[in-house]
Specification:
heterodimer, A: mainly alpha, 9 helices, globular, B: mainly alpha, 0% strand, elongated
């Protein structure tokens, strides 16, 4: 499975690079350089986040996470997770590390899904720094309001489908 | 935070446990690196190759349910962070896309955009969990777009009644 995804991804990279080459060498060089640069910039942040979240998961006492956010916590756990997600500040490293740490230390999958969905939709800093300056206020509020039920729908679907 | 947590594990559970946790996470991280790199490269190339004006034209006014689907699809397709996504959403509005399509676009980018999933989510959660989460998120942009349209329409009706 992992191998298949890898092959698929690199085939996509190859196709895109090929199209870029046809359109001109500079385009190919620019794309490759931009992609590599971003990768190198991200590397340390993701590395610290992944290893760090592993240790946070180990350090957190399981007996504390499980009753609040475990698979048995049901809708209350989903609600707590969604509120927690909405209040989590910071970029992707923070949100995903916390989610991964919670999952490793015994939180239920639907609860973690509610957390990361709420965090992705609401991350306060993103709303304020990016969305408000760049979009009409009307649209920002509209999007925030219609997004309210989404973490719960995602968690409900997760409960229905069950873990693979 | 990472430092404090690793120190806690080291002191509480000893050196051996510390090393096994470290090794497990570093392996997970290393396995994901080719995918992260591929995600970065795909993102960079799509940004260069896809003309944004054309994208915006496809989500024009009165696009109906198809417009929502197209908007959600572009949210999935377009790479990049907030710096690239919100200007595109703004362009949608200027060109005449309705609020529902714009909402579907933004929600889709946040929840199922592949660059975010590849670059950020995958190293943390692993492949199975990410695919599973994305499957569950698939209907959400459409639901959000429809809700936005209903809200806008209700708002209009309220204003009409006030006159």
């Amino acid at each position: 499975m992992t191998l298949a995804i890898n092959i698929l991804l690199w085939l996509t990279v190859g196709t895109l690079a090929f199209i870029a080459t046809i359109r001109g060498r500079t385009l190919l060089n620019n794309g490759a350089r931009a992609g590599l640069l971003e990768f190198l910039l991200l590397l340390p942040r993701i590395g610290i986040g992944v290893v760090g979240s592993g240790f946070v998961a180990e350090a957190l006492p399981n007996e504390w996470v499980a009753p609040w956010l475990g698979p048995e916590s049901g809708f209350a756990g989903v609600l707590i997770a969604a509120i927690g997600g909405a209040l989590t500040p910071g970029g992707p490293v923070v949100g995903f590390s916390i989610g991964a740490a919670a999952l490793k230390s015994g939180a239920g999958a639907p609860q973690v899904i509610a957390y990361s969905t709420a965090w992705a939709l609401y991350a306060i800093h993103r709303l304020l720094i990016w969305e408000v300056p760049m979009m009409p206020a009307r649209i920002v509020w509209l999007r925030a309001i219609v997004s309210l039920p989404l973490p719960f729908i995602a968690a409900a679907l997760a409960m229905l489908l069950g873990r693979p | 935070m990472a430092g404090a947590a690793s120190a806690t594990v080291y002191i509480r559970d000893g050196r051996e446990h510390f090393l096994s946790v470290l090794f497990g996470d570093v392996t997970l991280f290393a396995e994901m690196l080719p995918k992260v790199l591929a995600g970065c490269l795909i993102g960079a190339f799509v940004t260069l190759l896809l003309p944004r004006e054309m994208v915006a034209r496809w989500v024009g006014h009165e696009s109906g349910f198809t417009g929502l689907l197209i908007a959600a699809f572009f949210g999935f397709l377009l790479p990049g962070g907030p710096i690239t996504i919100y200007p595109v959403a703004g362009a949608f509005l200027i060109i005449g896309a309705d609020a529902g399509a714009v909402v579907a676009f933004i929600v889709s980018w946040t929840l199922i955009g592949y660059t975010r999933a590849l670059v950020w989510e995958l190293p943390f959660f692993g492949l199975e969990f990410v695919i599973w989460r994305i499957v569950e998120a698939l209907p959400l942009p459409i639901i959000a777009g429809l809700l936005a349209r209903i809200t806008v329409r209700a708002g209009f009706r309220y204003r009409e009644n006030m006159k």
